[in-house]
Design brief:
The complex is a heterodimer.
Chain A: H1 3-28, H2 31-60, H3 64-80, H4 85-103, H5 107-121, H6 140-151, H7 155-167, H8 172-192, H9 198-214, H10 216-219, E1 228-234, H11 241-252, E2 256-259, H12 266-276, E3 280-285, H13 291-304, E4 311-315, H14 317-321, H15 325-328, E5 333-334, H16 338-352
Parallel strand pairs in A: 1-2, 1-3, 3-4, 4-5
Helix pairs in contact in A: 1-2, 1-4, 1-5, 2-3, 2-5, 3-5, 4-5, 6-7, 6-8, 7-9, 8-9, 11-16, 12-13
Chain B: E1 17-22, E2 27-33, H1 46-49, H2 55-68, E3 70-80, E4 83-93, E5 98-104, H3 107-119, H4 125-131, H5 134-205, H6 213-244, E6 253-255, H7 257-274, E7 278-283, E8 290-292, H8 294-310, E9 317-325, E10 328-334, H9 342-345, H10 369-379, E11 383-389, E12 393-401
Parallel strand pairs in B: 7-9
Antiparallel strand pairs in B: 1-2, 1-5, 3-4, 4-5, 6-8, 9-10, 10-12, 11-12
């Protein structure tokens, strides 16, 4: 059995397994039908599909940690909605058994093992998530005020707050790392905790993108060092802001950056890398089910860059969760944040010279 | 991801309002008013109950109910306690040709309120069921999720476009500044020879000015010299501005580089001989033919060689070394001239950045030669570097690839 065959088996059978899980869940608890009806069934199946997506990407990356992290995330989310560990555990057991039956040995056993590993850790996983805006962090007060303004829909004042802080000497790097990045993480957490809506999440992200652009005159003022970066994101637009920050950090270090956003097909990324003769390519993944696509980008860039070898760095949530994951996608390294990404890239380019 | 709704419990009793209206929007009955905001409003228009800002929207809401049979999740403002309150409305037509309307403070609350109404088995439950049947709710949800996604994409694309624009804008600003500087320097450099031409020609034309034949010849030679310098400067300027405008056209062909080097060394030996400067050439047999623009390579070689001669004193030697290496050809020109101070090395490839050393026989320099060389080397995908020591001399090294990668 190979990783690839397990992944494709899971993907092929996903619909069947999801339906099976829902049927069994509704059969086990007759009150569900009365309480939630057809709509509930649909939701349940959707949830099961999502679980399977994560399971499949964890299998593909050979990383139990990725799936366990997803379960930890779901536990917090469900706890806020009044569901207990027990409910989640039951659901996971249903899924594990459905996977095992549907796929049979050895695929079913391998997938079940990943689920079991997460189940084993379910008890010790926290049921609330800690705020990203702790007092101990630099510029904590600024970050808190910024987030409050955004959540109250006041982007004008939020923008003034940031521009004033920069004028008063706070570095753009600090604003990025301690205000923008932290508040973005906090917004995600509050959504998970069911404290804010999807609309608020989108608004905050859009407002931060606009305010970032007001800092561009400072960001693009650094003398050039003759190095080029192509940056792209595999995943949704709501999360591309992270790699955008990374590109801006390179810009501040004097690199010429070509930022491609979240919707560039592999072909476009490869083309841009070769057209710009990029020294470094930065690719970020939003969710763990985007990790295989990152692997595809890495492979294509390597295959198609003849005559020179751009270094490839990866980042984003799944790579932070599993610090060894970057190896499995064939990258040259991984950085947990924008600042370290620049340091890593400069080291890689020096070693490559 | 798990949806909020699935985990709904009956923890708290939802609050909202429910009305029965005629199809033209006249309130017939208040079914429930947990929010306590309506009072006895029978006979009034639904649109008159909402805040002025929502009145048009309320009409469209009713229109949608009447035409499609149901409407879900319309946000309308309702006056309350001297202010306004935003409520989420849903409605459906009943079999009796009336419209049942429910409203609650959030979309989720509407759904819960609906559940609550179903529980009390209200006579309008069937109509409500139609308004909030899973397909309607799901369709609105899907539409919203899809719109959110599209808006996020639109926003990202705008942000990316703005980033590009800002980057380009700053680049243009910098380029424009450089251009202005450049123009100022070029104008300054053209002014001197024009001044000379003008003065000498005025003298020649002045009938009161005593001028011998020899003097006349001398003046005319100076006028010609100034004209030649201006011509050279303008040619260089044209070259450089063409390159800067991205119009460096490479007419790449197979070039016998050894032959080209020999010819250029020979040519410059003539000039060097006038100053008793020797040019030596060391060339390995392994010098490859390269794929390049022959005229431009010649310009590179010639510029470096004539520069070396220009700044060398009588009796010194200029050494030229050509050999294969690193997948291309190395071409090195070393003089025993005055050398360039370390602080000036970084800027000598910029236009008009003349270094301190003066030419040794009054030769003019346009200040553009090295800037052009640098750009031509870059255009070939090559490398250009300089080493210098004051009092010892200067060495320029050019590397050109066998073929542009």
């Amino acid at each position: 059995m190979t990783t690839a065959s397990l992944t494709s088996a899971l993907e092929e059978q996903s619909e069947r397994i999801a339906t099976l899980v829902t049927e069994r869940q509704f059969a086990a608890d007759r009150t569900l039908e009365a309480r939630f009806g057809e709509r509930g069934r649909q939701k349940c199946t959707e949830d099961a599909r999502r679980h399977l997506e994560y399971l499949s990407s964890a299998a593909s990356a050979e990383s139990d940690t990725l799936f366990a992290d997803y379960v930890a995330w779901a536990k917090i989310l469900l706890a806020r909605l009044g569901l207990s560990d027990d409910d989640l555990a039951k659901n996971l057991v249903l899924m594990r058994d459905a996977v095992r039956e549907t796929l049979g040995a050895p695929h079913g056993d391998a997938a079940a093992r990943i689920v079991d590993s997460a189940l084993g850790r379910l008890g010790e996983m926290p049921s609330v998530s800690e705020s990203f805006l702790s007092d101990r962090q630099p510029h904590a007060e600024l970050a808190r005020r910024y987030l409050d303004l955004l959540l109250s829909g006041d982007r004008q004042t939020a923008s003034t707050l940031i521009l004033d802080a920069v004028r008063d000497g706070v570095s753009v790097r600090d604003i990025y790392l301690h205000v923008f990045q932290r508040t973005q993480h906090e917004i995600g957490r509050r959504w998970q905790m069911n404290e804010i809506s999807v609309a608020q999440e989108h608004f905050c992200t859009a407002a931060t993108q606009l305010i970032m652009s007001q800092l561009y005159p400072r960001i693009f003022a650094t003398p050039r060092v003759g190095r080029r970066l192509v940056a792209a994101c595999v995943g949704g637009d709501l999360h591309e802001i992270g790699v955008r920050m990374v590109a801006d950090f390179f810009e501040m270090a004097g690199w010429d950056t070509y930022y491609l956003g979240a919707n560039t097909p592999i072909e476009g990324i490869v083309e841009s890398v070769s057209q710009r003769r990029a020294h470094v390519v930065a690719i970020s993944a939003t969710m763990s089910y985007h990790v295989p696509a990152v692997g595809d980008v890495v492979r294509s860039v390597r295959e198609r860059s003849t005559g020179w070898a751009p270094r490839i760095v990866v980042g984003g949530y799944p790579f932070r969760v599993d610090p060894d994951l970057w190896r499995s996608v064939g990258a040259d390294g991984y950085a947990p944040d924008a600042s370290e990404a620049v340091a890593l890239a400069e080291r890689l380019v020096r070693d490559n010279a | 991801m798990p949806d909020v709704e699935v985990a709904l419990t009956d923890r708290d009793v939802p609050r909202g309002l429910a009305l029965l209206c005629s199809r033209d929007g006249i309130v017939q009955r208040v079914l429930r008013d947990d929010l306590g905001i309506l009072g006895d409003i029978r006979g009034q228009r639904l649109s008159s109950l909402v805040d002025g800002s929502s009145r048009d929207k309320a009409q469209r809401f009713l229109a949608e109910v009447v035409t499609t049979g149901a409407a879900f999740d319309w946000e309308l403002s309702v006056p309350r306690d001297g202010g306004v309150r935003l409520l989420h409305f849903a409605a459906a037509t009943t079999d009796e040709n009336s419209v049942v309307v429910v409203a609650a403070p959030s979309r989720l609350a509407v759904v819960r309120y609906y559940d609550e109404l179903m529980r009390v088995n209200n006579e309008q439950a069937n109509a409500l069921r139609a308004a909030l049947k899973p397909e309607t709710v799901q369709a609105v949800r899907d539409r919203d999720a899809d719109l959110y996604e599209k808006m996020a994409r639109l926003n990202s694309e705008l942000a990316t476009a703005q980033r590009e624009l800002m980057k380009k804008n700053l680049e243009l600003e910098r380029a424009n500044q450089l251009k202005n500087q450049f123009l100022g320097m070029a104008a300054h450099d053209l002014r001197n020879p024009i001044g000379a031409i003008r003065s000498f020609s005025e003298l020649l034309l002045d009938p009161t000015f005593p001028v011998t034949h020899e003097r006349q010849q001398d003046f005319l030679r100076r006028i010609r010299g100034s004209s030649e310098f201006m011509l050279a400067l303008i040619n260089d300027l044209l070259d450089l501005s063409a390159i800067e405008a991205g119009q460096l056209r490479m007419d790449a062909q197979d070039v016998d580089i050894a032959q080209l080097v020999r010819e250029n060394v020979e040519l410059n030996r003539v000039l060097a001989a006038e100053k008793q400067i020797e040019i030596t050439l060391t060339m390995n047999d392994d010098v490859p033919r390269i794929h390049a623009d022959a005229r431009k390579v010649e310009q590179i070689l010639n510029n470096l060689l004539s520069n070396a001669v220009k700044f060398s004193r009588t009796g010194t030697t200029v050494r030229v070394d050509a050999r294969a290496g690193d997948g291309g050809i190395w071409f090195i020109v070393a003089d025993e001239g005055p050398g360039i101070p370390a602080g000036e090395l970084a800027t000598i490839f910029r236009p008009f950045q003349r270094a301190t050393p003066q030419s040794t026989a009054g030769e003019h320099s346009t200040g553009l030669g090295l800037a052009i060389v640098k750009r031509l080397v870059d255009g070939h995908g090559g490398r250009l570097s300089v080493e210098s020591e004051v009092g010892r001399g200067t060495t320029f090294s050019v590397w050109l690839p066998v073929a542009r990668g």
